[in-house]
Design a protein that fits this description.
The structure holds two protein chains of two kinds. Chain A is α+β, with helices and mostly antiparallel strands. Chain A contains 51 helices and 19 strands. In chain A, helix 21 (384-396) runs antiparallel to helix 22 (403-416) and helix 26 packs across helix 27 (505-518). Chain A is extended. The termini of chain A are far apart. By secondary structure, chain B is an alpha+beta fold. Chain B is 46% helix and 26% strand. In chain B, helix 2 (77-94) packs parallel to helix 5 and helix 4 packs across helix 5 (126-141). The chains are: A alpha+beta, B alpha+beta. At the A-B interface, helix 2, helix 4, helix 6, helix 8 and helix 10 of A face strand 2, helix 1, strand 3, helix 2 and helix 3 of B. Chain B: Keywords: Membrane, Protein transport, Transport.
């Protein structure tokens, strides 16, 4: 009785205090909760807090179960329970009351009940089922507020199995007149989509309706669903791009009601959401991307206010621009944006800038170069996060040249770091970089030693595993492998000689394995010493049983020879009394092996050659045992799928080493093996073919399937990467060489500037950190291989698009593919009058037309294919390389590039019999080939021999006309007899031929030459274009001879200078969308490096140098008289940063390739 | 994605916590203690973002009150930083005095539920965030 009175009394003040509340239900500090909170705030020790809360919980527990407690009081009690739970004290007794409150309460109490439920329970809590009925009831309520609450709780926490019960009701709410209900219904469906996507599959149409809802809030809610769905399959929602773009345009344009603004920016979070969606949709999809360029541009433009939220939008914008199909103009703006971020004095913006840069360098590493000094500063920033983000950035731009500097930076950060997550993350990264880019063995082993010591036992087990595998598999070079192993042995011996009590177990395991396996490789090393060191390790305190097992395995391998055997025997004896059964077993095996030398030699052959071990994968030696067992009534063996799965999780960490290196008869007596036959059968099953040489005991036990191979047969992967990249790099060795030169130059560069030492140091660091970026091999050397993928994957899209673009112009005939209408006409003319191709040059720039076409007319039909016996007029071809004065600026059209063709000239084997290698021997009888008169004034290449046989010799010369390339073929009859029915045909798939008709001659007199030429156009750039041709002739009727020849043309043959002014250049530059940036080698051997380099390029590739201003130069050229390509060059350290733009997608790449070649050849 | 939102006073005591992924009650205290350690002692000139395990923490201080949001790495830190301010503006609009905030835990939660749901920002329009709560108040009054 007194109990009840007491309860009522304690309840009284709270009643009173609640009643004294203002009506709105806002609780004040005078309430019980207020008192409680104040009490807690005043506490100083954890202990007191615990005492107070326990007391409070007891009071609450009493009151919630009291029948006298009103709903209003219950609400207050719930809030107090929430508070206790929030402080970490479970109030599970209150859960059921929370559900009751949601069920029975009205308005604010009901909401509090729902709130308490959502805070107390998790999705799988069984009590949640009790809520379903309440939710159902409230969903059908006529009170909007109650419907609202129910929808809120449904979208927060709802049992998955009960979704079908509420789904029809929620769906119905999608067309509710109130926006808030529609909005919440959409959010509830989003929740359902997250937890049970198949349940809402049928209502995708309704999502679309929500997207088009007239209320911006409902539309915004539907975006969450769309973001999720588009992430999963972007291709299914491409049709919505237009809608998203329109919505974003309207939002950016301020079409939303004003209360959606945040600090006068219209719905910034909505903008960001849309930008994310757009970037997902535009990724690797040019046509989709094109539809969003405008709105992205608009977003960039609008977000100019100086407020955090606009920067947040800009960040998303920049990310989107770099994610979707690139557009030069936008990229430029985005890069500028990043620049503003990175250079901002506000630390938050700087961080965001670094984050953006980290994202962007995956696509364009050269951007890191622009901000190198800032990056260096951030590297030494006092704020850890900034430092960390900078390291992340460096990780992404690591290549073979800067790896040592970057890894050193990361390691020094790691040494000061004490956060486990960061350590695990960075250690993994260092290991990855070390394996990918290690410059030499020594560095590799040292770096891995640091990785193992710092990473400790936190490290994911695949790091040591892949390291050991790398040692074991080795590379192609025996010498190198041996050196690596010996180096590892040496360095681990010295590690063991020092104090190794602090070393992580994983590292000790690695050390023992390496010493056991490879210490014999080191000459002059007393193995007893190794055994003693290992023995010391075995006795050391704090060494785990697992590690001891590794050490023992190593000892087992080393115990050959008398002195060593005794030492090992002592170890084995000492283990005979150990409590650890596995160790005792191993000790026993060790003793056994020592006593039986021949068994030891069989089990563990000393040099452990990779192919000496044969694994009987079918376990046939057990057949007898199996049949005996079956005969004795044992159950037949079943494939252990289930056990494999179970064991799969356990086998991820390192297994006991060398289980497989022992023959089955022996290993089957070890405890672990007997327990896990499935592991054995599986790992031996790995080598389906037991003769496979790589099957190797030590390796197999490491369980490395799935681990990425980073140390291939060719050596470290960076080299492989370079050779494998589909980029235009053809001679990787040269590339590596040239980049090595860069290193040298870069490092020596800061010397001459007498700057303050601090700055100098930074620059030096910069040059070593950013070396190799943006040069031609940078793309493939980026840390993440996937980073380079989009870049290369995009190319086909580009081509497709540009071809579809040009097809508008050239839809009907193959000739029309030349880019201008004029040339279309011209192509048609040619078709009709193949004999006078040169007349067509009236379409060429005037100077040529004047000189060339008059001549052509004079000669008329005789020019082409007609016997031109000009043997008498011997003029050396060399002398003819005179400039055409009117056409050429500084004679840049005269070119002799015989090598390009010569190297491409492939002689089919069947005709090789009398192939004469050079021109001189070809035109044997003092006859020198000579271009037709009207072509002599045009720039042209040397005449080179293509092929010859006993009768005929074919030579070729390329004549560079402004609008086309002429392939001039010389047929020389090297005999005295008359050749009849001479027919020549030339074909090339990639090029458009101006004249395809074969040149046919009825007869060709002895010792005469005939000339025919083909006009060739290049519509789209190809780096190399092969052409083939045949000549057939008859020495006497019925004796037909055929001669095949082939050659190669390059884009360089089709490049013509484009003369324009700087202003025109500027205008043109902005109108082009396809661009490529790259670093080229700067020629430093003579005079001004920029001018020297540009001159070489000009001479080799017929570029037109528009202007040179300071350290920058602009150059222009075009593809015949078609698409222009502009090149902007800037001297950047020891390299030339070039930026090419063109209206043709593949032109910049092609030109760049030829520039690289030209500079290399120079 | 937003993982959790905490309101912490200067003494490091939690005033409000909301988790968008389930975390055991027992583990929350430890997590919050770590978060406090990460954020409270940072200097003014330091970044408002901190790395914590595989999360990023975004924190913002208002007088004696800290708001800390745990987010995943793909989230835009600066937008969350401003979201916190938006939240504060909403609180400011509703409560007359700052001290009322901590005595009205449930109402703060109700507002928060309107803003963030399942770790997503679902509403930032202040009027709309407050509308359901104001309706509740009105009904409770009548």
């Amino acid at each position: 009785m007194s109990d009840v009175v007491e309860k009522t009394l304690t309840a009284l003040p709270s009643l009173l205090s609640l009643d004294s509340q203002p009506g709105a239900g806002k609780l004040s500090s005078t309430s019980k909760l207020g008192q409680f909170i104040r009490n807690i705030t005043e506490l100083t020790s954890k202990h007191e807090e615990e005492k107070l809360i326990k007391k409070e919980l007891a009071v609450i527990k009493d009151q919630v179960s009291s029948p006298y407690t009103t709903m209003r009081q219950m609400r207050e009690l719930m809030v107090r329970s929430m508070y206790c739970e929030m402080l970490g004290y479970e109030a599970s007794f209150a859960y059921i009351h929370a559900i009751k409150l949601a069920q029975q309460g009205t308005v604010l109490e009901k909401r509090a009940g729902y709130l308490a439920v959502s805070l107390f329970l998790n999705e799988n809590h069984e009590l949640l089922l009790l809520l379903v009925n309440t939710v159902l009831k409230d969903l059908q309520s006529t009170n909007i507020i109650e419907v609202c609450m129910a929808l809120t709780v449904v979208s927060q926490i709802f049992p998955k199995d009960m979704i079908p019960a509420v789904l029809p009701l929620v769906e119905e709410k999608l067309s509710h007149p109130k926006e808030i209900i529609r909005r919440k219904a959409v959010l509830a469906l989003y929740k359902f989509y997250l937890i049970a996507p198949n349940q809402v599959q049928h209502i995708h149409g309704k999502f679309r309706k929500a997207l088009c809802d007239k209320d911006p809030g409902v539309m915004t809610s539907s975006l969450h669903i769309y973001l999720q769905m588009i992430q999963e399959s972007p291709d299914s929602y491409k049709d919505l791009v237009g809608s998203f773009v329109t919505i974003l345009r309207q939002v950016v344009g301020g079409k939303l009601p004003l209360d959606f603004n945040y600090h006068s920016i219209p719905a910034p979070w909505l903008q960001m959401q849309l930008l994310r969606i757009l970037s997902l949709l535009g990724r690797e999809d040019q046509s989709t991307s094109e539809t969003m360029y405008d709105v992205l541009n608009e977003s960039l433009r609008r977000a100019e206010m100086n407020h955090n939220i606009t920067y947040a939008i800009l960040y998303e914008c920049v990310k989107a621009i770099y994610t979707i199909h690139p557009k030069a103009e936008l990229l430029e703006k985005a890069a500028k944006c990043i620049g503003n971020f990175v250079l901002s004095p506000k630390i938050n913006l700087k961080y965001l800038g670094l984050k953006a840069l980290t994202y962007v360098v995956q696509h364009d590493a050269s951007l890191a170069l622009q901000h190198q000094m800032t990056i260096i500063e951030c590297l030494d920033h006092s704020d850890l996060l900034i430092k960390r983000e900078t390291l992340e950035l460096l990780f992404r731009i690591t290549n073979a040249q800067n790896v040592t500097v970057i890894v050193e930076r990361i390691l020094s950060f790691l040494r000061l770091c004490n956060d486990d997550y960061t350590i695990i993350d960075l250690v993994g990264k260092v290991a990855e970089l070390a394996e990918k880019y290690a410059p030499d063995n020594e560095w590799f082993i040292q770096t891995m030693t640091v990785v193992f010591s710092l990473g400790g036992d936190l490290m994911p087990p695949d790091i040591p595993s892949s390291f050991l595998r790398l040692l074991a598999e080795g590379s192609q070079s025996e010498v190198d492998d041996r050196q690596l192993k010996v180096y590892a042995v040496n360095s681990y011996l010295s590690v063991l000689n020092d104090d190794c009590s602090h070393l992580p177990q994983r590292f000790l395991q690695v050390i023992s394995w390496v010493l056991g396996e490879y210490s014999y490789l080191r000459e002059g090393l007393d193995q007893e010493e190794v055994i003693l060191l290992l023995k010391k390790l075995l006795d050391q305190r704090g060494v785990s049983a697992e590690t001891r097992s590794w050490v023992l395995s190593a000892l087992t391998k080393l115990c050959r020879g008398s002195g060593r055997a005794e030492l090992a025997l002592a170890v084995a004896e000492s283990l005979s009394s150990t409590l650890d059964t596995v160790l005792r077993q191993q000790g026993h095996e060790l003793r056994h092996l020592i006593q039986d030398g021949s068994l030891h030699a069989r089990v563990l052959p000393q040099p452990a050659p990779a192919n000496s071990l044969e694994v009987d994968s079918s376990l046939s030696f057990l057949d007898g045992f199996v049949s005996d067992a079956l005969a004795a009534g044992a159950a037949p063996y079943k494939p252990p799928h289930q056990r494999q799965e179970e064991l799969g999780q356990q086998r991820a960490p390192t297994l006991e080493p060398y289980a497989l290196s022992l023959p089955m008869s022996l290993s089957s007596c070890t405890v672990t093996d007997r327990q896990s036959p499935s592991v054995l059968s599986m790992s031996s099953g790995l080598s389906a073919n037991s003769t496979e040489p790589s099957q190797r005991a030590g390796v197999a036990t490491l369980m490395l399937e799935g681990v990425k191979r980073v140390w291939g047969k060719e050596g470290y992967l960076p080299q492989r990467d370079t050779s494998e990249t589909p980029a235009t790099v053809e001679e990787p060795s040269d590339v590596v060489q040239s980049s090595h030169q860069q290193v040298v130059i870069d490092i020596s560069q800061p010397e001459p500037e007498p700057e303050p030492p601090q700055l100098d140091k930074k620059q030096q660091l910069a040059s070593s950190l950013f070396v190799g970026l943006g040069s031609q091999n940078s793309a493939c050397l980026l840390g993440k291989t996937e980073a380079t993928v989009p870049r290369f994957r995009r190319k086909p899209h580009l081509n497709d698009a540009s071809s579809s673009g040009t097809s508008e112009r050239s839809s009907d005939s193959s000739h029309s593919s030349h880019s201008t209408a004029d040339s279309f006409l011209y192509g048609g003319l040619l078709e009709e009058e193949p004999a006078t191709p040169i007349q067509s040059s009236r379409h060429a720039p005037q100077p040529i037309a004047a000189s060339g076409s008059c001549e052509a007319r004079q000669h008329g039909l005789t020019v082409n294919g007609v016997d031109e016996n000009r043997g008498g007029a011997v003029v050396c071809a060399k002398e003819e390389k005179r400039a055409h004065p009117t056409q050429l600026i500084e004679s840049d059209m005269v070119r002799v590039r015989p090598n390009a063709l010569a190297e491409g000239a492939v002689v089919p084997p069947q005709n090789c019999s009398r192939h004469l290698p050079s021109t001189s021997s070809c035109g044997s009888d003092s006859e020198v080939l000579k271009l037709p008169f009207e072509l002599q004034n045009l720039p042209h290449s040397d005449i080179i021999s293509l092929i010859s046989d006993s009768h005929l010799c074919i030579s070729c010369c390329r004549v560079f006309r402004e609008d086309a390339l002429l392939i001039v073929l010389f047929l020389s009859n090297s005999t005295e007899m008359v050749l009849c029915d001479v027919a020549l045909e030339l074909s090339c798939e990639e090029l458009q031929m101006g004249s395809l008709r074969g040149n046919v001659m009825e007869s060709m007199a002895g010792r005469t030459s005939s000339v025919c030429h083909y006009t060739v156009f290049m519509e789209r750039p190809h780096t190399h274009v092969p052409f083939t041709g045949t000549v057939s002739y008859q020495t006497q009727p019925g004796h037909k001879h055929t001669l095949h020849f082939s050659g190669k043309l390059t884009t360089a043959d089709f490049i013509r200078p484009l003369v324009l002014s700087t202003e025109e250049y500027g205008k043109l530059w902005l109108s082009f969308s396809h661009d490529v940036k790259q670093n080229l080698r700067l020629l430093t051997d003579a005079g001004d490096p920029l001018i020297a380099t540009l001159n070489v390029l000009k001479d080799c590739l017929q570029l037109h140098i528009v202007d040179i201003i300071g350290s920058e130069g602009i150059v222009a050229c075009r593809l015949l008289d078609g698409a222009p390509c502009l090149m902007h060059c800037r001297v950047h350290g020891a390299s030339l940063a070039v930026w090419l733009r063109s209206s043709l997608s593949s032109f910049p790449d092609c030109l760049l390739y030829h520039c690289q070649r030209a500079l290399q050849e120079h | 994605m937003i993982k959790f939102l905490l309101m912490i006073n200067k003494q490091g005591q939690t005033r409000l916590s909301k988790y968008y992924d389930h975390v055991d009650v027992g583990k929350r205290a430890a997590l919050e203690a770590n978060v406090v350690k990460c954020c409270l002692f940072r200097k003014k000139e330091e970044c408002s973002f901190v790395e914590y395990k595989d999360y990023k923490l975004v924190y913002r201080q208002y007088a004696a009150l800290f708001i800390v949001v745990g987010i995943t790495d793909d989230e835009n830190e600066l937008s969350i930083y401003e979201l916190v301010h938006n939240f504060i503006e909403v609180l400011d609009k509703y409560f007359n005095r700052v001290t009322q905030i901590m005595f009205n835990l449930d109402k703060v939660h109700i507002m928060l539920d309107e803003m963030i749901l399942n770790g997503c920002i679902v509403e930032t329009n202040k009027n709309r965030i407050l509308a359901p709560l104001l309706a509740l108040d009105k009904m409770a009054e009548s």
